[in-house]
Amino acid sequence: MAIKSCDETKREDSAQRRGETVDEDSVYVTRPFMPPIDEFIPYLRRIWESKILTNNGPIHREFESQLGAYLNVQELSLVSSGTIGLLLALRALGVASGEVITTPFSFIATSNAINWAGLTPVFADTQVNGFNIDPESIERAITKRTTAIMPVHCYGYPCDTRAIDDIAARHGLKVIYDAAHAFGVEDDGGSILRHGDAAVLSFHATKVFTTLEGGAVICRDPEVRRRVDYLRNFGILNETTVAEPGINGKLNEMSSAFGALQLLYVDRLIEQREQVDINYRERLGGIPGVALPPLSNAIARNYAYFPILVGDDALLSRDELNTALRCRGVVARRYFYPLITDHPAYQSARKVPSRLQNANRIAREVLCLPMYPDMSEQVTDAVVREIRSCCSDASVV
Ligand SMILES: Cc1ncc(COP(=O)(O)O)c(C=O)c1O
259-297: per-residue pLDDT in tens? Predict the structure, then answer.
């Protein structure tokens, strides 16, 4: 990997802001896996011949059942995005009013979905050591108005599902897991998507498994699945009946085809990611103030992200390191910074505790390093070299 000068990278940064193409030499935080194009052509032929582009077409139906079997889940409905999946899950479960307790340390889509469903997000803190919502904080946030909990399996680390499901059962609350990062993750009882009343995957282009845009709602109750299925299709029950107002949340045939083909490769892609994770862990240890991602208690992981924490005792702050890396052609990402509660849209939301101390700390310290399946050892080495050199020489900023 050729290392670039800071000026070169600054030029590219401003080009990117203007929407121009950026240099292909930079190492980006993620890169989608593109299956061999020749293997996609037969799917395209089928679509061309059938002239069915959407509306529960044949490839959609095949892919939906293949994916359910692959993930070993009871009920799975494909949808057009993770965000729409969260909306549909709330609606299908009858969460129609009140407050939904969620985490401030997530992508904005989690609380946007709550808001668009006409509900009020209330933010609980994250755990002291970890990236997920703290069950004790959830319990303290519950009021008479609380109707549901929406935790996030952040970076694919399983939430404390036992504690959360127990709280929900005691207070009569629905639980919808935002499982956007949790494709293929298993705990000792199987897929973590089985927890709660529903779990929602995202198949966005940045995810471990992608259909370009897309997602899935997973649940155990066939009646909830039936509701998701008609709600994703405008609420249409049959040719002459609309049961209730739905939305257009369908996944099209082209995306379904891309997903069906990705599915043939996904085990290999996760193995490759695991190797990148191993490479990073072997090479990145021992930098003062820089903590490697905690080991997951999952039985099967997906290695979706590699989030390091840059503490106060590091030579550089997280932001200084991020900028210095950018200058050297390494595009890491501050997922998730700012906290959702720091965006103008959510600044006035209720927070418990009000300072969200743990979430604020991780938002200040986290930096997700480049991580994608075909990231070679040389590229990983180069990224590590840049991090080491920045963290041992404060004059880089
Ligand atoms: C935690 C989280 N929730 C929800 C979403 C939204 O998913 P989508 O982009 O498929 O709508 C994303 C990512 O995109 C995410 O990272």
Answer: 999 999 999 999 999 999 999 999 999 999 999 999 999
Q: Where in the chain is the domain with CATH 3.90.1150.10?
A: 6-32+267-396
Mean pLDDT of all residues belonging to the chain: 94
113 Cα–ligand 1 center, Å: 10
**For residue 20, is pLDDT > 50?**
no
Contact present, 218 and 193 (Cβ < 8 Å)? yes
Please report which helix (H) or strand (E) contains residue 150, including its range.
strand 146-150
Query: Measured from the CA of 154, which atom of ligand 1 is nearest?
Result: 1
Rounded distance from Cα 61 to ligand 1 centre (Å): 23
User: Residue range 64-78: average pLDDT?
Assistant: 98
CB distance 258 to 212 below 8 Å: yes
Considering the domain 6-32+267-396 in this protein, what is its CATH number?
A: 3.90.1150.10
The answer to whether residue 11 scores a pLDDT higher than 90 is no
Residue ranges of alpha helices (H) inside 31-142 are 37-50, 58-71, 82-92, 109-116, 135-141
CB 43 within 8 A of CB 257: yes
Which residues, other chains included, contact 226 with Cβ-Cβ below 8 Å and sequence gap of 6+?
Answer: none
Would you tell me which CATH number, out of the four given (3.40.50.300, 3.40.640.10, 3.40.50.720, 3.90.930.1), belongs to the domain 37-261? 3.40.640.10
Average pLDDT of the segment spanning 210-239: 98
**Nearest atom within ligand 1 for CA of residue 202:** 10
Locus of tokens 């966005």: 204
Task: Report whether residue 107 contacts ligand 1, using a CB cutoff of 6 Å.
Answer: yes
CA 355 to chain centre: 25
CB 9 within 8 A of CB 325: no
Q: What are phi and psi of 210, to 5 degrees?
A: -130, 150
Q: What is the pLDDT of residue 19?
A: 42
Q: Considering the chain, tell me which residue range(s) the CATH 3.40.640.10 domain(s) occupy.
A: 37-261
Query: With a 6 A CB cut-off, is 152 part of the ligand 1 pocket?
Result: yes
Tell me, using a 6 A CB cutoff, whether residue 178 lines ligand 1. yes
Q: Which pLDDT belongs to residue 21?
A: 42
CA of 86 to the centre of ligand 1 (A): 9
Cα dihedral across residues 55, 58, 59, 63: positive or negative: positive
